[in-house]
Design brief:
The structure holds 2 protein chains of 2 kinds.
Chain A lengths: L1 E10 L2 E11 L4 E5 L6 H9 L4 E8 L2 E2 L5 H6 L2 E4 L11 H6 L14 H7 L16 H13 L5 E4 L8 H16 L3 E5 L3 H7 L2 E6 L2 E7 H5 L2 H8 L2
Parallel strand pairs in A: 3-8, 3-9, 6-7, 7-8
Antiparallel strand pairs in A: 1-2, 1-4, 4-5, 9-10
Chain B lengths: L1 H31 L6 H19 L2 H22 L9 H23 L15 E5 L2 E4 H23 L1 H11 L1 H6 L4 H23 L9 H16 L4 H27 L4 H26 L10
Antiparallel strand pairs in B: 1-2
Classes of the chains: A alpha/beta, B mainly alpha.
Chain lengths: 233, 304
């Protein structure tokens, strides 16, 4: 589905990614692990066309997307839940959900408002509040639902539960579990390895702008050194 | 009392004309972060195109129908050719470039239409007057201007609050890259917003055509008032532009009408008229200063 091959990305003269490669297959949940500043978010931004890639290749369902503007990348079927949520504060919850509503091919029928709210029912009580009136957890749920409303083939979450209370995190992981059970492909960045172990199929670990390890959940589970290194990051 | 009501209506008419101008300018500045000094040029283009078409066809309505898309199309062309290069530059570059556009359009109108002003006739079906209140006949054309302005205000309100494109415009104003990541084509949206803004300026020009002389540079005088309106209302806020435009229209009109009589109470007539004219000219700037001290972001700043 998504293939990232040897991409390099720069911020000005400073190189952020050094030949990053990864793959997400249909129906998979794949994680991108690593400490802060290792290039995970830059990888996501490069995939989404928000940061230009200087070399390498990104394809989505065999179509090259690395030179496309972000809106055309999204229209290929990539839904983004960005770092920091980036909810539109001047739009109500309902408007935030509906503003990008589209059918980018993730399933036969586009999501309806009612269906999307089934994932996080508490948003249904806040439909008429403005985006900046929500708690951090509610904003994160809203960011997931907003991306889901584009009916994406691949849902990408950058720091899915960063800075959220444990109960809210649980709610987010539950919601993502529901989506996985429905066959939604997901690429997720988070530091909560325990939750990701139960949700994800495969993992990539990044250090200093490069992928240094990749493998399945069972391979991480069998590797005490990796578990010790990444449990607490 | 009758004079007061008549002047209130005049103030309302100036207010809605200013609203047509300022709604477009505040949208462009609030959403695209571009200071467009050339906004008055689209007012002038609307007036010139309408005056020309109306003179040749004898139909004011046809002039209006041609002038609106003309102002929108010229605006979109300017956005694509000039302004897209300025989004990431600072405001000084934008001011210089759009100031250059003012001179370009002023000279272009002189080349195309000559140096003599054009005069537009009030359409015959609006040439009479109506007694809104018994004893106060008020020109039908000015009532029509007020009606058009209020209709545009309702249209903009509904567009921004009830339509998907309105939602997308507000989302793009808040976070351009996030809107793009949801599949919204921000470049196209910006071009459309700019076209809408310049079309509204063109509409203001058409409506002002039969009241003022249509001449090169006519956009500059109203541009200053328009900037005052959007600063008073809150930059980026269409609701603020509406309130600000009505306030400025009223203060300007009532000041010019009644300040001479007021100053004549304690000054010699000749002196009083001079002082009154000066104070009336200053009044909207004094209003702006008071409002900025009270509410530095304007009366109804855009919701961010």
């Amino acid at each position: 589905m998504l293939k990232v091959e040897q991409i390099e990305t720069f911020y000005g003269s400073s190189q952020a990614l050094f030949g990053v490669s990864l793959e997400v297959r249909e129906g998979e949940v794949v994680t991108l692990l690593g400490r802060n500043g290792m290039g995970k978010s830059t990888t996501i931004k490069s995939i989404m066309g928000l940061t230009p890639v200087t070399s390498g290749r990104i394809t989505f369902n065999d179509k090259e997307i690395h030179a496309l503007p972000s809106y055309r990348v999204a229209r290929q079927g990539l839904g983004l839940v960005p770092e920091g949520r980036q909810i539109f504060p001047n739009l109500t919850v309902r408007e935030n959900i509906m503003v990008g509503a589209a059918h980018y091919g993730g399933r036969k029928e586009p999501y309806t408002l009612a269906e999307a709210l089934e994932i996080f029912p508490r948003l249904g009580e806040r439909l008429n509040n403005y985006g900046n009136q929500l708690s951090g957890g509610e904003q994160q749920m809203l960011a997931v639902v907003r991306a889901l409303m584009t009916t994406p083939k691949l849902l990408i979450l950058d720091e899915a539960t960063e800075g959220l209370a444990p109960l809210v995190r649980k709610e987010i992981w539950h919601g993502l579990g529901v989506l996985k059970a429905r066959g939604q492909s997901i690429l997720v960045i988070d530091k909560n390895l325990r939750a990701l172990m139960t949700l994800a199929d495969r993992h990539y670990i990044m250090e200093k702008g490069a992928v240094v390890w990749s493998g399945t959940t069972s391979e991480i589970a069998d590797n005490e050194e990796l578990k010790a290194s990444y449990r607490g990051v | 009392m009758l004079l007061v009501i008549e002047q209130l209506l005049n103030g309302l008419q100036l207010g809605v004309t200013l609203f047509l101008m300022s709604a477009g300018l505040t949208l462009i500045f609030g959403i695209m972060r571009v200071i467009n000094l050339a906004h008055g040029s689209f007012y002038m283009i609307g007036a010139y195109v309408a005056a020309t078409v109306a003179a040749r066809s004898g139909s004011f309505l046809l002039g209006l129908l041609v002038a609106l898309p003309a102002a929108a199309l010229v605006g979109m062309l300017v956005e694509i050719v000039v302004l897209r290069r300025l989004y990431k530059k600072d405001h000084v570059d934008q001011v210089l470039a759009t100031f250059g556009l003012i001179m370009f359009f002023n000279e272009l109108t002189r080349v195309v239409w000559g140096r003599q002003p054009l005069f537009m006739d009030v359409p015959s079906w609006l040439s009479g007057s109506v007694e809104l209140i018994p004893g106060i006949p008020y020109p039908s054309y000015r009532i029509a201007v007020i009606g058009v302005g209020l209709l545009v205000a309702v249209f903009l309100y509904l567009m921004f609050t009830r339509t998907r494109i309105g939602m997308q415009i507000r989302a793009g104003a808040s976070n351009r890259s996030m809107a793009g990541a949801l599949g919204i084509n921000i470049k196209l949206l910006y071009t459309l917003v700019f076209g809408l803004g310049t079309m509204l300026a063109g509409l203001a020009g058409v409506m002002a055509g039969p009241i003022l002389a249509v001449e090169a540079g006519m956009g500059e005088s109203i541009l200053i008032l328009t900037f005052v309106v959007i600063v008073i209302g809150g930059i980026g806020s269409v609701r603020g532009a509406f309130i600000g435009a009505l306030l400025v229209g009223m203060i300007d009109t009532l000041g010019r009408a009644f300040l001479p009589a007021f100053f004549r109470l304690f000054l010699a007539t000749a002196h009083a008229d001079g002082v009154a004219a000066s104070v009336a000219s200053m009044s909207i700037y004094i209003l702006m200063a008071i409002i900025l001290v009270w509410r530095p972001k304007g009366l109804l700043p855009a919701h961010t």
